[in-house]
């Protein structure tokens, strides 16, 4: 039975690659890239072994990062390959004593797991001067890799059970995203506050050594230092953690195979919502539908969350460098990013887009409605971001220029996105899926589309950026007003042009667009 | 009024090496209740997608009430209501919002949309669920709300791909009543189905399609020729196994 399930997992992995050549190429390129980084790191560990002042602490940190990465990223963000999700085995009545271990083992058959094991083993090279310690380090790193994969599996099962509740799923992702985005600036503040590396590496690694994250990887350091008490304690702790985790995991797998996750309670909304507020025309209807999605669909929430997050990040960055110039670019940045966010609109609709095709709505109305919804969502934060920095810093001469560039960026971005989303679709997280999940092997196509869209926006903004830049350098409000004027004319013109051109393309290609989203590509 | 509600002329579609629909021509008379039957993978959905403007055919054309749907899509779609199979809805909307949306997208008046939405929710037994998000609907409820979005603009032709799948018997009977009523006042309905019994009882006309080829078309009585539709279907399509199969399944 164990062999069967491992075989099944291998077959699934192989068939996944067979599905499309593009995806295979994407995975190969991505895999080679990561493999290259791992080899570089391993070589670095190997060749700096003589100069490395604290290999013990470093080993603990590397192990901890690996385990923590596995604990956080797959269960909460990217989602795990759940083709072998325990609850899929509900109907088979396989003995949990066999199924549990089999599924746990199957978890190791994946590209990321193999790369992690390789990377951790490679990091043992930093002990090459003491062969005995290096042998222990190899074993310890392998144990850490096992810990990482087991922890990931356990948390995934827990998260899946919780995620069955839609509300919870959408809420956690929002909170988590906030946390992750603010983590970088917070950490860098803490680290730069510490005078030297040894100030923070010692206490942090000392604590981590007693947690499941670093217990195993603390062993080589303890042996090298001749600290046998610590060696014993960490070895026992590691064994207990791993054993306990294994028991928990097998039990959770058994529970998940015995009873599928319960259904959630239905959500309601009174009345017609935005449909009542906006005009009863096709454009108004599309805008009302899109607005509803802006507030109800977590995939759009990423763009909305950016609005409070960017100022915070910029403020942190400014706090460290002592210069807050970045804050002045919030307006144009909001404009570009918010406007850009509707370039995947049709992809986000997925097959629900069929309704637009079947009703025969005109292309321009479809484009205009989507752009209008994004405009309504974005205009107030955009105006605040354009006006507040200049007002708060008491540089009122900046105001017209900032406003001009921000509005132009927003309008041009909306126009370009209206054209792009009528022509280019790409694989996105499906409705109701984890919004952070990007389908694999999609990177190149998406990157090219996004690069093209962003590049076009940048080129089209040049006529506004030039007077804005000169005005900034000469502190001229007159040139700022010029930028505002050009920005409004250019922006409105390009938005209208984008809606017309996008509408035309949409009408020519609506069935093809539908077939593309049907395959989610 | 055009005597042929849906005129399918030599539609063909090929996916890679697989011929999904092979030169199918089909006339659906106005005022008929037309059944489209065929085994799984016969090309029913592909053909209906091409006839309703969702999938561009490799060759051939489809005329909806006399208007070529690929030459004048917007005009043709005005008199056409479609329930597509295997398609999502905008399921973050409530049932009421979704039906309203479908009406407004077609450029209808707000009051008219509101009145018809309530009527449709009532006949679909969804009046008490109108404020629930469609994502929380059961499969049968989703089918019914999708049917409502296809009917709000009172089309002359309804194309329904698997309308009774996952719908409970009571709702199915209600939907049949609505469709019968619709046909008796001059509307035309095309349904695809696997359930021969249902098609035989409900439809006036039937077409049999298998492996992308049209095997038979005409009134139900013509096609079945004295046999039951199910027997005739099996004759036409073939593929019945012998009865030797699974001796080990006999538990006694």
From TrEMBL, chain A:
<feature type="transmembrane region" description="Helical">
    <location>
        <begin position="447"/>
        <end position="473"/>
    </location>
</feature>
<feature type="transmembrane region" description="Helical">
    <location>
        <begin position="329"/>
        <end position="348"/>
    </location>
</feature>
<feature type="transmembrane region" description="Helical">
    <location>
        <begin position="403"/>
        <end position="426"/>
    </location>
</feature>
<feature type="transmembrane region" description="Helical">
    <location>
        <begin position="231"/>
        <end position="249"/>
    </location>
</feature>
<feature type="transmembrane region" description="Helical">
    <location>
        <begin position="21"/>
        <end position="49"/>
    </location>
</feature>
<feature type="transmembrane region" description="Helical">
    <location>
        <begin position="369"/>
        <end position="391"/>
    </location>
</feature>
<feature type="transmembrane region" description="Helical">
    <location>
        <begin position="98"/>
        <end position="121"/>
    </location>
</feature>
<feature type="transmembrane region" description="Helical">
    <location>
        <begin position="171"/>
        <end position="194"/>
    </location>
</feature>
<feature type="transmembrane region" description="Helical">
    <location>
        <begin position="55"/>
        <end position="77"/>
    </location>
</feature>
<feature type="transmembrane region" description="Helical">
    <location>
        <begin position="269"/>
        <end position="288"/>
    </location>
</feature>
<keyword id="KW-0812">Transmembrane</keyword>
<protein>
    <submittedName>
        <fullName>Transporter</fullName>
    </submittedName>
</protein>
<feature type="transmembrane region" description="Helical">
    <location>
        <begin position="133"/>
        <end position="159"/>
    </location>
</feature>
<keyword id="KW-1133">Transmembrane helix</keyword>
<feature type="transmembrane region" description="Helical">
    <location>
        <begin position="300"/>
        <end position="317"/>
    </location>
</feature>
<feature type="transmembrane region" description="Helical">
    <location>
        <begin position="479"/>
        <end position="501"/>
    </location>
</feature>
<keyword id="KW-0472">Membrane</keyword>
UniProtKB/TrEMBL annotation, chain B:
<protein>
    <submittedName>
        <fullName>ABC transporter ATP-binding protein</fullName>
    </submittedName>
</protein>
<keyword id="KW-0813">Transport</keyword>
<dbReference type="GO" id="GO:0005886">
    <property type="term" value="C:plasma membrane"/>
</dbReference>
<dbReference type="GO" id="GO:0046677">
    <property type="term" value="P:response to antibiotic"/>
</dbReference>
<dbReference type="InterPro" id="IPR003439">
    <property type="entry name" value="ABC_transporter-like_ATP-bd"/>
</dbReference>
<dbReference type="InterPro" id="IPR050763">
    <property type="entry name" value="ABC_transporter_ATP-binding"/>
</dbReference>
<dbReference type="GO" id="GO:0016887">
    <property type="term" value="F:ATP hydrolysis activity"/>
</dbReference>
<dbReference type="GO" id="GO:0005524">
    <property type="term" value="F:ATP binding"/>
</dbReference>
<keyword id="KW-0067">ATP-binding</keyword>
<keyword id="KW-0046">Antibiotic resistance</keyword>
<dbReference type="Pfam" id="PF00005">
    <property type="entry name" value="ABC_tran"/>
</dbReference>
<keyword id="KW-0547">Nucleotide-binding</keyword>
<feature type="domain" description="ABC transporter">
    <location>
        <begin position="6"/>
        <end position="236"/>
    </location>
</feature>
<dbReference type="InterPro" id="IPR027417">
    <property type="entry name" value="P-loop_NTPase"/>
</dbReference>
<dbReference type="InterPro" id="IPR003593">
    <property type="entry name" value="AAA+_ATPase"/>
</dbReference>
